[in-house]
Specification:
The chain is of the alpha+beta class. It has 4 helices and 6 strands, in the order E-H-E-E-H-E-H-H-E-E. The chain has a single domain, classed as Spore Coat Polysaccharide Biosynthesis Protein SpsA, Chain A (Alpha-Beta Complex).
């Protein structure tokens, strides 16, 4: 078990009002990925892979992003006869 990284994701981002009116500041995109994704990748590059995200303003959007991360970032197939069976076509 490694060291956990705690990231505070609670600010409203009032200085980014145009971007944060509908999404939280950590989800503002840079290069088609949220700022939070970039921060976590920097930590992961240095070996820190356990994260605790302290959610605040619009935290449900952050939860939704990571719950559906695999489907957001890969192609997938859904059989309409069996919609619970989703095949994810990962590049890995």
């Amino acid at each position: 078990m490694g060291i956990k990284v705690v990231i505070l994701c609670g600010g409203m981002g009032t200085r980014l009002k145009e971007e944060t009116e509908y999404r939280p500041k950590p989800m503002v995109e840079i290069g088609n990925k949220p700022i939070l994704w970039h921060i976590m990748n920097i930590f992961a590059f240095h070996g820190f892979k356990d994260f605790i995200l302290c959610l605040g303003y619009k935290g449900e959007m952050i939860k939704e992003y990571f719950l559906n991360f695999e489907m957001r970032n890969n192609d997938f197939t859904i059989k309409l006869s069996h919609p619970q069976k989703i095949k994810i076509h990962s590049e890995q």
